[in-house]
């Protein structure tokens, strides 16, 4: 029986009453008992029960109350915390704080390291604030930045094409999630397709804007989580899908729709379907050939007419420029969409920070971008390869290694229960001062499920190689410790004794 703990793994050691020595058949019986004991249903898992106690995480259809005994705020419903808040809350319950964060390894963090990396240009450390910039910026953003974004897309993806983006095809937004919410707010009463697994925030975005009707499709690991374009076309015909939303490259699987598949997906935007692509990781592509460094992937390459093709691109400084704190992002699409986004921005967020928009303009210069992109790809590829090699040493091979993004979608199903489920693995790593993200957060709207154990993401965690290498190594050391503990003392040590969540305001650490 492979326990996925390595070829040198001793059998699971279940302490025997009495002698302390067990025969092989006793051992097998113990293993079976152990497996039986370790839950087929979320109700028997402490980690899952903690998750369910959070307001908004009860199965849908039940009242989402903080404490059913207490009076609730009239008319207020908890939307359910995002993976971000939940994981931060659990980390804090285990002693994480912003002052102790250096003692922790955050493999959960969905942010790239922001410091210098080899070969990358220096980033600005002062910001100008001319008097004009103290005024509101337009809700579509300042014109110079909109022009700079359009120019960069034309330069990178549309050379030689007749139809070119102009500033009127660009809306500046205060962050990617704001871009997503602005877009979701203007989607009408239509079927909107999304895939599982995908970026955690789609859960809340798709359920907060209640006019649109979300339609999920589970991506198949046997097909490397590829979006099946032929099936998508059939779904458009049979189900009447009008909008398709996907992150590409995809968080958390690290796979990317490219080449002909991307071309065909974009073509749907000429046939009555709106294709919304969240391209936040478009530079995080890891080429095999030296000459491919510096190339990135965007649907903009396959758009024929920038105003007629219904293709909506969301991107920004957050990941590619490694500037998550700037909150300067954009949506690129047909003019008619941009005017709608101006309207939704006028009540949702009021627009991006004016001085930061002005400061962003030089960063969009194609020459600057070319250098940053190559540096980023070399550096992150090295980190990816290092972490994959370390996981291999631990016999935790990644079945579908990432070809893009800075995420590893790790299947734990070969580990013995309860370590084989993402939520329990997450809780055990918190005891080792390491944060990962349980897979169920990428199962959009997980609380819907009556039994979280049935989620296709149940056995997974997402590891981020966004942080600097030393942090990553500490995190993998922590995983090694958990596996060592499993080898030494069996499974009794796992699946219980989790700290209660702390009361009070939660400061989210970004995931
Ligand atoms: C696919 C994807 N889109 C958007 C975002 C969020 O961008 P922002 O932090 O600018 O809101 C993230 C961040 O994790 C992401 O993974």
Please provide a written account of the structure.
The chain is globular. Helices cover 32% and strands 11% of the residues. With 511 residues, it is of the alpha/beta class. The strands form 3 sheets. The protein has a 7-stranded mixed β-sheet with strand order 2-8-7-6-5-3-4, sandwiched between helices. A 3-stranded antiparallel β-sheet has the order 9-12-11, covered by helices on one side. A two-stranded parallel ribbon has the order 1-10. Helix 5 (176-185) runs parallel beside helix 6, helix 5 packs across helix 9 (335-348) and helix 11 (366-393) packs parallel to helix 13. It starts with 23 loop residues before the first helix and ends in a 22-residue tail after the last helix. It has 2 domains: 31-110 and 406-493, Aspartate Aminotransferase, domain 1; 131-371, Type I PLP-dependent aspartate aminotransferase-like (Major domain) (Aspartate Aminotransferase, domain 2). Helix 8 (259-268) links the parallel strand 5 (241-247) and strand 6. The protein is built from 13 helices and 12 strands. The relative contact order is 0.19. Pyridoxal-5'-phosphate binds at residues 110, 175-177, 199, 247, 251, 278, 280, 316, 318, 324, 329. Residues 1-26, 38-64 are annotated as: Disordered. Its cofactor is pyridoxal 5'-phosphate. Belongs to the class-I pyridoxal-phosphate-dependent aminotransferase family. Residues 105-479 form the Aminotransferase class I/classII large domain. GO terms for molecular function: pyridoxal phosphate binding; transaminase activity.
């Amino acid at each position: 029986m492979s326990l996925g703990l390595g070829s040198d793994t001793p059998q699971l050691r279940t302490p025997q009453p009495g002698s302390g020595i067990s025969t092989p058949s006793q051992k097998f019986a113990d293993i079976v008992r152990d497996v039986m004991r370790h839950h087929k249903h979320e109700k028997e898992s402490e980690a899952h029960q903690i998750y369910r106690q959070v307001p908004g995480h009860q199965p849908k259809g039940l009242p989402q109350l903080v404490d059913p005994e207490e009076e609730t705020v009239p008319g207020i419903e908890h939307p359910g915390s995002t993976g971000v808040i939940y994981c931060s809350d659990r980390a804090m319950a285990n002693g994480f704080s912003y002052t102790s964060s250096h003692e922790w390894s955050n493999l959960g963090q969905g942010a790239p390291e922001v410091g210098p990396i080899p070969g990358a240009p220096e980033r600005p450390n002062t910001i100008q604030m001319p008097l004009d910039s103290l005024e509101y910026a337009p809700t579509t953003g300042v014109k110079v930045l909109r022009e700079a974004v359009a120019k960069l897309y034309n330069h990178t993806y549309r050379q030689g094409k007749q139809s070119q983006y102009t500033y009127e095809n660009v809306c500046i937004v205060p962050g990617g999630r704001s871009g997503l919410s602005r877009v979701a707010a203007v989607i009408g009463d239509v079927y909107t397709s999304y895939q599982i697994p995908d970026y955690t925030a789609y859960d809340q975005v798709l359920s907060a804007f209640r006019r649109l009707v979300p339609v999920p499709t589970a991506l198949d690991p046997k097909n490397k989580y590829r979006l099946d374009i032929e099936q998508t076309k059939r779904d458009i015909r049979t189900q009447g899908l009008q909008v398709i939303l996907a992150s590409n490259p995809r968080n958390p699987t690290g796979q990317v729709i490219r080449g002909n598949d991307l071309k065909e997906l974009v073509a749907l935007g000429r046939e009555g379907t709106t294709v919304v692509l969240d391209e936040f990781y478009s530079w995080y592509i890891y080429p095999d050939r030296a000459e491919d460094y510096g190339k990135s992937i965007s649907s903009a390459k396959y758009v024929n007419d920038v105003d007629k093709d219904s293709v909506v691109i969301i991107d920004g400084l957050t990941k590619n420029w490694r500037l998550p704190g700037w909150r300067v992002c954009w949506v690129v699409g047909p003019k008619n969409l941009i005017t709608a986004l101006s309207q939704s921005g006028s009540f949702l967020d009021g627009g991006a920070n004016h001085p930061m928009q002005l400061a962003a303009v030089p960063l969009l210069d194609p020459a600057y971008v070319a250098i940053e992109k190559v540096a980023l790809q070399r550096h992150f590829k090295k980190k990816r390869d290092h972490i994959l090699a370390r996981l291999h040493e631990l016999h935790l091979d990644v079945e579908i290694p990432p070809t893009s993004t800075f995420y590893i979608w790790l299947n734990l199903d070969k580990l013995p229960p309860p370590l084989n489920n993402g939520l329990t693995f997450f809780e055990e790593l918190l005891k080792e001062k390491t944060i990962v993200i349980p897979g169920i957060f990428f199962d959009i709207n997980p609380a819907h499920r009556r039994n979280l154990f049935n989620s296709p993401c149940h056995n997974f965690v997402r590891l981020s190689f966004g942080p600097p290498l030393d942090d990553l190594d500490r995190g993998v050391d922590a995983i090694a410790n958990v596996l060592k503990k499993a080898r030494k003392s069996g499974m009794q040590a796992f699946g219980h004794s989790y700290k209660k969540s702390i009361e009070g305001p939660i400061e989210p650490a970004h995931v």
